[in-house]
Amino acid sequence: MKLAGLIVQRFMQLILLLIGISFIVFLSMHIAPGDPASIIGGPTASKADIEAIQENLGLNKPILVQYWDYLKGVFSGDLGFSYQTKQSVTEALTERFPNTLNLAIASIIVAVVIGVAAGIISALKHNSLFDALSTMIALGGISIPNFWLGAVLILIFAVNLQWLPVGGLTDPFWTIEGIKQLILPALTLGTGSAAMIARMSRSAMLEVIRADYVRTARAKGVREKSVIMLHCLRNAMIPVITVIGLNFGFLLGGTIITEQVFAINGVGRLMIESIAARDFPMVQGAVLLVATLFVLVNLIVDIVYAFIDPRISYE
Amino acid sequence: MIESILSVNNMVTAFKTSDGLLPAVRGASFSVKKGETLCIVGESGCGKSITALSIMGLLPSNGKVTEGSVMFENKDLLTLKKEDMRSLRGNEISMIFQEPMTALNPVFTVGYQIREPLMIHHRLSKREAHQKGIELLKRVGIPSPASRMNQYPHELSGGMRQRVMIAIALSCNPKLLVADEPTTALDVTIQAQIIDLLNDLKRDFEMSLIMITHDMGVVAEIADRVIVMYAGEIIENGTVSEIFNSPQHPYTRGLLSSVPNVDDPDFHLNPIAGSLPLLNEKISGCRFHPRCPHAMEKCKAVSPVTFEATPTHSARCWLMEDEEVRQHGGQRAGTL
């Protein structure tokens, strides 16, 4: 297995991808109505003031020149400065990213634990009441919008029962408080993924338990627990790993609504605020970060693959 | 007389389907003696694999043995507790399957899969099981066995995989090996090697062998005794020479004349017309009569009883009644 080759190849792809993504984001931000200069200047600014601000930010140059300048900056590690706060984009992202990462990891843990367990039990008790219920709940989980689920969870567990805080993510995740703060947002964000993982686990498991090699394992006298947990699960997990990886990628970039609902200072919330303020450099930086993470997560999935399935080799 | 190691008595196996309960094996009775090779032959779908899986307790979840008994060394396998049956499987009774390409788990090494039964049944340590595994691979004719232990199934050819399967099945010195068409998926040259290997191993391990096949060539090569199945029923049972030299049932004769004979220039293939009835097809009388060239009125009405041609040779066919009447003056040896 030539892992190094795979990693180098993926990094080349990543660079091309990031150039493409940055171009599209750059373009769409500039085409979209709303001018950052007039937002910075405020409603009372004169035309001359706004032109001065544009001049200052370089917004009066041709768009391709602006993009070229930006790209040069990115490759030298400079994502620019926020129009709003004048803070360095890199700094703002490093400040906010840990919250998003915590939330995404907590959500994927919730999703994997619930999803894989429900999927396996459904497959083992195929066509039972549990199977029917979990399939129905999974369908619900995929269909229910985040903002609604978040609001309902807050209402039940934070407002009525007062077991968990309404929002915020201020304490570190290794403290009790931090965990309490993570539970509701992680459930909100992880439900959709849990549903997808459950469906995938169920169908993968159903296929595997009918496989010839599972019959062989039984013919060898392997204990039923090992038949399921070793012989079936390891094979069934191969397609599930892809879904988990994809979902983790989505979770990292998809925290926007959940962060908003639970007032968590993460990259998602930063993105929304920056879009509203037409803070081009901040939006571009955040999108590039999310895209990079998505590609990296997929790379990790490919590497994990090779460990689970010996038939895959990167040569 | 040598004692039987396995005796199947009037076993009925049925499958729950949307069309109701469908019997796939209809009252099979036979026995296997110590050191004997019994071949079960018949067309695809006649119930021979289901017979094997019923004995092993490995039927798919919608299948169930509804009647009869399967006695293995004075234990009825059908009433054994699940855990007791599990500790028997792979230990005293082993099975190998038709498709070596899919019968091994793709994500575990050959070594893992061969160590598993040794560690479960003989409680060997991993190191001991590994040593034993290497010996077993060597015994089934796998070159450089030590390095094969670390390989995955996809790195081996079909013939090699079947050898690995055999090594796994024999790892705990079983008394009975059930082989479900172990050569069907292999090249002809490899088939012959595997048959030879099974013959050798049977002798060395002093085990009994149930070989399921539809290949009469394999039967001639390996069988001591043969049972012929048709549409879920055993229609003929005899020693290999009896079956080949004086087949009684028209179906058995049909099977034999479906095999090309290159030594005989006048030989014409004479295949059996028609095809196997569906499991849920209602057929009155003998289940073979719609395809039988000798069918009489009686065959359509009454299911035939078992007639004995010799003490070791029996068949279910009304044609034998006439012969018996001629030979024994009306005394019927058949039983219902």
TrEMBL record, chain A:
Coiled coil: none annotated. GO terms for cellular component: plasma membrane. Keywords: Cell membrane, Ion transport, Membrane, Nickel, Nickel transport, Transmembrane, Transmembrane helix, Transport. It is found in: Cell membrane. It holds the Pfam family BPD_transp_1. SUPFAM superfamilies: MetI-like. Residues 97-305 form the ABC transmembrane type-1 domain. One of its GO terms (molecular function) is nickel cation transmembrane transporter activity. It is a multi-pass membrane protein. Belongs to the binding-protein-dependent transport system permease family. OppBC subfamily. This is Nickel import system permease protein NikB. It comes from Fictibacillus solisalsi.
From TrEMBL, chain B:
GO terms for biological process: peptide transport. SMART domains: AAA (SM00382). It is found in: Cell membrane. Residues 6-256 form the ABC transporter domain. Keywords: ATP-binding, Cell membrane, Membrane, Nucleotide-binding, Transport. GO terms for cellular component: plasma membrane. SUPFAM superfamilies: P-loop containing nucleoside triphosphate hydrolases (SSF52540). PANTHER family: DIPEPTIDE TRANSPORT ATP-BINDING PROTEIN DPPD, OLIGOPEPTIDE TRANSPORT ATP-BINDING PROTEIN APPD. NCBIfam families: oligo_HPY. This is Oligopeptide transport system ATP-binding protein.
